[in-house]
Design brief:
It is built from five helices and eleven strands. It is α+β, with helices and mostly antiparallel strands. It has a four-stranded mixed sheet with strand order 4-5-1-11, with helices on one face. The protein has a three-stranded antiparallel sheet with strand order 6-10-9, covered by helices on one side.
Length: 236
């Protein structure tokens, strides 16, 4: 079962940076644009809260291993929760003013985009049949989220050229051999507040995800943090 939570970025107070560990706070500080730092904070705070709820653990105590499964680099692999054991995976994405997290008992990839952003993906990222099937930006952005979700589930990101994946009418038709077979994946669109669109790719069969707001989780965490910190103290 896959659980998807979303949150408006401006609903996540910066005081919740206290939930991040030192390594993640350092990563956030290296992000140049303030808006991008806020999006990253919202996504990782929500991820910690949802994962902590799922595991029955303190969100602030969670540690993540980012070792790349393909090259062994310790910093750019798909994050996994240390000591979580098998049967738990997660993926996060953010765009514009929304952050979204998916947690699953199967390998999962999630991508979201702002359907009004208007930045059309490069034609080279699409196959001839995909270009013919997507005459407008709305079609392109929906297809783009589906491709990104598959790549994120595979832990490859854009290391695999998206033009090597073909998706027609929300059905995965072609994949590079190193990613497996199209029928190995369950691909679904994720209903999100307008103007955002999202897609979820799960390795193996999976039922429809449960999609809901993470606002209550964030509010409860903010109240807890506020009551435990000296007045005026925050973590950046």
């Amino acid at each position: 079962m896959t659980d998807v939570r979303y949150i408006d970025v401006d609903q996540v107070p910066r005081s919740l940076a206290v939930l991040l560990d030192g390594r993640d706070r350092a990563r956030r500080r290296r992000i140049l644009r303030e808006a991008d730092r806020d999006r990253a904070l919202a996504a990782w705070v929500l991820a910690r809260l949802v994962l902590g709820e799922r595991l029955g653990r303190d969100p602030a105590a969670l540690r993540f291993d980012r070792t790349c499964a393909h090259c062994g680099d310790p910093d750019h692999g798909k994050p996994v929760v240390e000591s979580a054991g098998p049967g738990l995976d997660f993926s996060l994405s953010h765009a514009g003013g929304l952050a979204v997290v998916a947690v699953s008992d199967r390998t999962v990839g999630l991508d979201i985009e702002d359907a009004t952003a208007g930045v059309r993906p490069l034609d080279a990222a699409l196959t001839d049949r995909e270009r013919a099937a997507c005459p407008d930006y709305a079609g392109f952005v929906r297809l783009w989220t589906r491709k990104e979700a598959v790549l994120k589930a595979a832990g490859k990101g854009l290391d695999i050229h998206p033009g090597r994946i073909e998706i027609l009418d929300s059905t995965l038709h072609a994949l590079p051999a190193e990613l497996g077979r199209p029928e190995d994946y369950t691909l679904r669109d994720v209903p999100l507040p307008a103007p955002y669109v999202g897609a979820l790719a799960v390795l193996g069969p999976d039922s429809a995800p449960r999609v809901r707001s993470g606002a209550e989780l964030v509010r409860n965490a903010a109240r807890s943090v506020s009551s435990s910190l000296p007045h005026g103290r925050t973590h950046g």
